[in-house]
Amino acid sequence: MATPPLIDVHNLGHGYRMAGEMMTVLSEISFQIGHGEFVAIIGPSGSGKSTLMNMLGCLDVANEGAYLLDGQDVRKLSDNKLATIRNEKIGFIFQQFNLLPKLTAYENVELPLIYRNVPHKERRKSVEESLSLVGLIDRMHHRPSELSGGQQQRVAIARAIAGAPPMLLADEPTGALDSRTGVEVMDKMKELNARGHTIIVITHDLSIAEQAKRVIRIQDGRIVEDRRNPE
């Protein structure tokens, strides 16, 4: 029996009412993403990719269609259940890192696990393993202001993977970094994918998208291309 996909999106549509008129942002979006895939969703500003990211990350719910995440129909869930899914099933990596400035690297990575009521001993093991994986165990007691941009993004990656969520959702993960550091961060994400993590990168940068194994291109709220990159 085939393993069901991690993500199953079918005829997803979304829009907003502005000045009495309905503005369509997404229309007839359908795709599946399996466990362990590395997918880039690419498109220019205004294409709808950020709205799609919000749907995939359970930050918003579409007006139309279906979105099944790990077999659950997201559109039928309460706000509290959506918050639980965001905490347990999705690791977020943001362009601006979104680290809390008064907390150390260790504490930033630990915080989502505290919200999840993970016991202290298990939290410590998970945090230290995650920081070791991104090469920052020796910097775990440093605050964000004491770390470089690349180190801050690696802390954000450690925070995203600490609870072993099924999916990592990265929004322009190299956008605030210089080119050399951006390469290092993408190398780390490829390493995580090789370890079995499902990774979805939202980007406008073709050079970033080409490092994924699959590219879904959005334009004017619709999918215009879905292709595999050569190995």
UniProtKB/TrEMBL annotation:
CDD domains: ABC_MJ0796_LolCDE_FtsE. Residues 7-231 form the ABC transporter domain. SUPFAM superfamilies: P-loop containing nucleoside triphosphate hydrolases. GO terms for molecular function: ATP binding; ATP hydrolysis activity; transmembrane transporter activity. GO terms for cellular component: membrane protein complex; plasma membrane. Keywords: ATP-binding, Nucleotide-binding, Transport. The keyword ATP-binding applies. This is ABC transporter ATP-binding protein. It comes from Paenibacillus mellifer. The lineage of its organism: Bacteria, Bacillati, Bacillota, Bacilli, Bacillales.
